[in-house]
Amino acid sequence: MSLRIKGVLLASVVASSFAFAGAAHAQAFYLQEQSARAAGRAFSGEVADTGAASLWWNPAAIADIRSGEAAISASAILPKGDVVDTGSRIRRTVAGVPTAISGQSTSSDPIRKGVVPSGAVAYPLSDRIAVGVAVTSPYSFTTNYDADSWARYSADRTRLRTIDIQPSIAVSLLPWLRVGGAVNVEYSDATLSNALPNLSAALPDGLQRLSGDGWDLGWTAGVQLHNDWATVGISYKSAIQHKLKGSLEISGLLGPLAAQNRVVDGATASFYTPAQIIVGGRFRATDALTLNAQAIRYTWGQFDAIRLGPPLNTAIPENYRNSWSLAGGFDYALSPRVTLRAGVQHATTPTQDTQRDARVPDANRWNYGAGGTFQVTPGFAIDAGANYVDFEDTTIDRPGSFYPGTAAATTIQTNGELRNARAIVLTLGGRLSF
């Protein structure tokens, strides 16, 4: 084959592999499980709450602490759902005739169960200044489709893990004003694969596998305005440009395509995860009851493409759109040692109709949360939260293309649906003063 054909083959490999997404608990591939206290009220007041447990959402949260604080939690995410073929077709070669995609027409529970840990610690340097650090995993998920799934050409196995380290400083500037800032140091590690169609349906599929990792930087800034009965918080978490370097492996191609089986070391790709503009408040209605509200705007529109470095030097369109979430909830002090919580959150998906594939089975969703805190001792509390996330049924309808611009060009017209998708999330954590 010509060098041009070799190049477009490699481009199509990365185009169909390098898409970091899945039906997660928050939006697309963002996970918001950074606090058990937050989970109990459906993440409705975090930007306006105080202490180490709210550090991820707003670094100003630690400005007025009077002693050292540590918070740790773990969330078990238990998703369910079906990715169903409703008439997808594949046309092999320019002269080929569209036919049905062989294999399983329903893939059940492709998004794997997992546990997401998080933690934070903060310490006052004076009565007005505090420092802290939060360690979280904000973009992580695993999907696994069977080798004979109808969706295998867009998604086979996907694993993404991130670790975000957020050193922070906060200052109480005025009796009613806290400010804070942070740097986000984020490590990403990804492994993605999907099947490659050979030129005949009688031949087994090939496979492409991409893996890479990298360290990247972002920042967070926030304020809190407060009085005796209300706190309003505003924060901004910057977008992060991720730059991954690793390897690309192509195997199992037969016949005229066999010359493309190879391992490419040093493959690079870059993409953005979104900024978040977070506004929320906590309002003391009575001595026992506090009401919470929070809105988040996600700039997912920055995830418009995955840009590939040499030797490909191209961009793969993703065309996400900006999205938002709204949440409301309450905390009720049942006794000096027991606090109950509940809340509800609605979030829109950044994925768009006609551009949603099986690796991105995301949809608008409602999140219902309940939980509480038990104050074991004056310095130690246990937090627990449970969430039920209900996803709308939606389409999976992004067309696929392999080997474009050559006689081997293969196209896939995807017609599928995400059905009966939901998730249960169980979170347990503790907070310690020292």
Automatic annotation (TrEMBL):
InterPro entries cross-referenced by the UniProt entry: OMPP1/FadL/TodX
Signal peptide: 1-26
Recorded topology in the membrane: Multi-pass membrane protein
Stored Pfam families: Toluene_X
Main localization category: membrane
Keywords: Cell outer membrane, Membrane, Signal, Transmembrane, Transmembrane beta strand
GO cellular component terms, A-Z: cell outer membrane
Family affiliation: Belongs to the OmpP1/FadL family.
Name under which the protein is recorded: Aromatic hydrocarbon degradation protein
Species annotation: Sphingomonas carotinifaciens
Source taxonomy: Bacteria, Pseudomonadati, Pseudomonadota, Alphaproteobacteria, Sphingomonadales
